[in-house]
Amino acid sequence: MRPVRTLIVDDSASMRATLKRMLSADPEIEVVGMAPEPFAARDMIKTLNPDVLTLDVEMPGMDGLSFLERIMRLRPMPVVMCSTLTARGAEVTIEALRLGAVDYVTKPSGTPEDIERDATLLCEKVKTAARSIARAGPTRLPQQPSIAGGATGKLIAIGSSTGGVEALFSLLPALPADCPPVLIVQHMPASFTRSFAQRLDAESQVRVVEATEGATVQPGTVYIAPGGEMHMELVGGVAGRIRLRPGDLVTGHRPSVDVLFRSVAPLGAAAVGAILTGMGQDGAEGLLAMRRAGARTLGQSKETCVVWGMPRAAKELGAVEKEVGLSAMPEAILKACREKVGSV
After folding, report:
1. How far is residue 149's CA from residue 112's CA, in Å, rounded to a whole number?
2. 83 belongs to the catalytic site
């Protein structure tokens, strides 16, 4: 199998050199070119035909977002954004993911050990991006009518990772204002989740917030697990509260989808679980626990996933009751909230 042909776009010469060194150390990746700004990158894309683009978020001339939007409209291809861990960086990166970027990495910095860890993650994400589905801009789903009977005494738990930002920007605006409470784990850094929740809140009928310790779950509200050092769990049933607790990585993540799903499993038939696009297998075991307890469980279909990793792992484990395309996911979730187990 030939190496993943990668083009680096960054206005900093030192950062281009750093990224090239990190990527070139992996024999499965070939850096075919480096561009200091989007106009040069545009010509290099035409001549070099790369498999993956790494793209700086903030650049002079044409910024990364404007260039990404053009790429996704004119020549969709896998793009990995390279951002800084700042409030501005978080906001712009989230918008980039909404526009169709496959994933993002933070710019390498820190100790040699930090750089080595960053290099491993960068190479992994570039290779995953090469296997992903490039999309022509963000998907928008029609808003759904309000579900009869209000919140129906149910609770919805959702897990997602790579490609999940775009998926959630499609799914959540389609949920009605009176939907059951929704708890979500989306893998992202601590500095990103608050901005992510605020952006989703502005585009949705439901209220979207970053989850806080002890918050009582309410109908019509979506709770995004904060990134960083805490797992998110539900305690006390459908009308219970959120617990944020420290702990080791679970399935390689903190917060972990598995931890959330296992905490929701005791609700049995009062819960609905959905596992969306993502790399790895986080959430598979937890979704199986939910299904065995009587919950309705849905998995995003391969054809509509950016990366069919987490849903695939859950399906192979027997945790997915029904596979659903992204466009059909809002109604499938609402239908599962209305109906009894076994009738999806």
Report:
1. 57
2. no
Q: Which of 258, 263, 282, 301 is catalytic?
A: 282
Q: What are the domain boundaries of the chain?
A: 4-130, 155-338
| 4-130: CATH superfamily | Response regulator (3.40.50.2300)
Question: Any catalytic annotation for residue 178?
Answer: no
- pLDDT tens digits for range 171-201: 999 999 999 999 999 999 888 899 999 999 9
A 10 A CB-CB count for 76 gives: 14
- Of 90, 276, 200, 132, the C-alpha closest to 81 is 90
pTM of the full predicted structure? 0.90
Q: Domain spanning 155-338: which CATH class is it, in words?
A: alpha beta
CA distances from 188 to 89, 102, 194 (A): 13, 13, 11
